[in-house]
Amino acid sequence: MRQTSLSFEFFPPKTEAGLEKLLHSHKALQITQPDFFSITYGAGGSTRERTRDIALQFNKISPNITPHISLSGDDLTEVKQLLDDYKNNNIHRLVALLGDNANHNPKSTAITMHAIDMVRLIRQHSDDYFHISVAAYPETHYLAKDAKSDLQFLKEKLDAGGNQTITQFFYGETVWSDFYERYSQLGIKQPIIAGVMPLSPQSLGFCEKCQVHVPTAMKAKVTQYADDQQSLHQYNLDYLTEFCQNLLNNGADGIHFYSLNQCNLFIDICRKLY
Ligand code: FAD
User: pLDDT for 19-28, tens place per residue?
Assistant: First the structure.
């Protein structure tokens, strides 16, 4: 019997074929008995309807759907309407975020709202009805003044009503241990779930955009397997199984897979891991 949390992140597909594939992944991943599936939210409400519709549809199949919800560029009335929709449709969990915004200037201090405001809004709207996850960044968020204040703001989000933390994905041996050492000093009681994403030639660009460091040797391996899906699968399976085991042995209360709507690799990892 697994003692730690297990979850998968999906994004709302744009096409019917993408939705079919996601339905398949959602069904196939049930074998791993996850605690929840989360559905991302496009900043500025760009996927508002799709995120909501998929959340409501999938929650009828497995009542553990966890939509992401963000403030970035969204109208407060629309956010409250979304909270009403979720509450009226038996959705009990959310990931509360600031949200990525194309207009964020890393050098700017002009952001007036933060994820903590979303946590407060949810609590004001519906008291303790929702279980709320918030985000953390083992390599420090790109807008943060410094690593120390970034962690302090995480604690404030949790103190304001967050029930657990999910981290950004990361790679390499020391990122987690360095982060967890600093994190442990804050005396946070809520669980922390480590975010894990497989590597592919395509994801290297995404890592760069998110300012997630990929060790040179890993980049080289992934690039080497660009035209060899089987070797890439085996590489991710071996690396991520050991990586997740280390995280679980060293303080992580669970694993949240950034699934990119896939399933086979995660089923194989879970078979080896649990
Ligand atoms: P915040 O907690 O507001 O932090 C943002 C920055 O502001 C940090 O640098 C922090 O140090 C600083 N800060 C925080 N609070 C304060 C404060 N009170 N005063 C001053 N500074 C403060 N993006 C999407 O668009 N859609 C998604 O679905 C999505 N899902 C995600 C899921 C996870 C698990 C993670 C880790 C990230 C996700 N993101 C998503 C990305 C995220 O929304 C962006 O990185 C965003 O810029 C930060 O969001 P946050 O909730 O961490 O913001």
Answer: 999 999 999 9
